[in-house]
Amino acid sequence: MKTIREYLKDNILLFDGAMGTYLATKDKALRNEVELSNLTHPEKILEIHKEYLEAGAMALTTNTFGANRQNYPESWGRIIDEGFNLASKAALESGAFVFADIGPIETEETENPAEEYRMIAERFLKNGAKHFIFETQSMSEGIIEAAEFIRSVDDQAFIIASFAVMPDGFTKDGEFASKLAKTIGSCPYIDAFGLNCMQDALHMKDLARTLRFGDKLLCLMPNAGYPTVLGRRVFYKGDPTFFARNVSELALCGARILGGCCGTTPEHIRLLKAALPAKAEISITVSQDEKQITDTVTSLFWDSLRDKKKKTIAVELDPPENASLEKFMDGARRLQKANVDAITVADCPIGRARMDSSLLSCKIRRELDIDVLPHLTCRDRNLNATKALLLGLYAERVRNVLLVTGDPVPSAQRDEVRSVYQFNSRKLSAFVDELGRQVLGGGFHIFGALNVNARNFDVQLKLAQQKIDNGMTGFLTQPVLSDSAMENLEKARKTLDAYILGGLIPIVSERNARYMDSVVNGMKVDPKIIEAYEGKDRAQSEILAEKFTVKIASEMADLVDGFYLVTPFSRISLMERIISQIQAL
Length: 585
What we know:
- By secondary structure, the protein is of the alpha/beta class.
- The protein folds into 2 domains: 272 residues, TIM Barrel (Alpha-Beta Barrel), CATH 3.20.20.330; 277 residues, TIM Barrel.
- It has 22 helices and 18 strands.
- The protein is elongated, with a radius of gyration of 28 Å.
């Protein structure tokens, strides 16, 4: 019997179709218990395996896509054992290759995805598995380490790493296909780079032609089509004949391993088998890179940070709670006249809806021609919405963004207003950075938040370094209103290779000070500052606000590249006086 590598020298390897969606059409009651059906309804899983083999498949994936400790903490091992046994039993007479199917590990739920993958792979290896497919992955984290482990146990093991990528080239975690292809292409433990799910055959072909994946084989497994939602159920209406015709063209483009993902049935595979050429081309033709457009937009804010001739000043304005913009824009004009370098606009602070920070930033940039720094949170947008927003910002000559996780929606509203949180600020930074490289003529200068008031500041420094590794170039700190915050700022200066704008917020009353210290996340106010405001009226409090803010700015001046001032209660006159004094430092 030929090994899989010998087989692939002369043949296209045809996989089966989608176990999950096909099982759901045969038995609606099992659509949420696909992997568990290995234990509860093994005869149905065995029947489906045999249907795909009869349709012409020469590779079966075990029914173990979600078999991991996250989904099945008690039974994951038994599900893998029986899943491999059922696929092996079905393939015995035909000689088809059995692939251990390993789906994605959610990295937000584990600190060590590599260890999770390794445990799953080890279980398969004990069952005798020799072929592995890591499928529908959204990032490479943990996969290369797991592949190295598999090869250390069996140096002849055949491994495919396949990723679920949207038609415009990125995964749900914001990883771009081009970067994933390059990573897998340079890995000595993996035999094939693949794409599966998320796309039909036509879009998958267009994307595959842009990728470079070294000397790896190419594995493509598109969906039957795109999903349609009816009620609470998802349907794929892809015509099997249309699917087969288009997937067969993937073979002509150089894909040596083909199959089907969501919505594909034995009928799809039968017609694909009949449509396949006898032999695929040796390699896929890679499209030439499009000529990059040179970015001619200047960011004076960024230039000021780099030149270091003076301390850069960015001032935050809260967006209005209603549709009235007169007061907001008047404040922006006055800050411009005060010669600040940028205006930052918060994104629905404390989870309460306000006018959109990006739209406001575009208006400021267009009408005042001053640099802006819109805050973008992970709370309210998935990657599609984020990409669309970034393209619009770039077209409006916005070149600086502040990426933050975002305050959650207050708990009492969560049943009615839901947060998205598809990614964190580290993943979002990597996505924005790669978007600039892959799509835009230049890119964004990416900033993040640094909480110098955190109890365990070493954790914040670790997260900040991860953000830098993912493309961030600078940080705006939480306001410094205590000795401990100043000490943490000094530690950040010594640790982080990034621009730092020290946070300043004028306190305008005793009540304001106590509120920030007690209620506002990420704030800490020195008790001596709070006591200084006791019994003071508005005029006296504003004098104190100037005094404390300028004093703190003076103390942090040697630790920062600039200052990030937060405007309290739209008090622009107060900010003008403070800015004037800080500029004179």
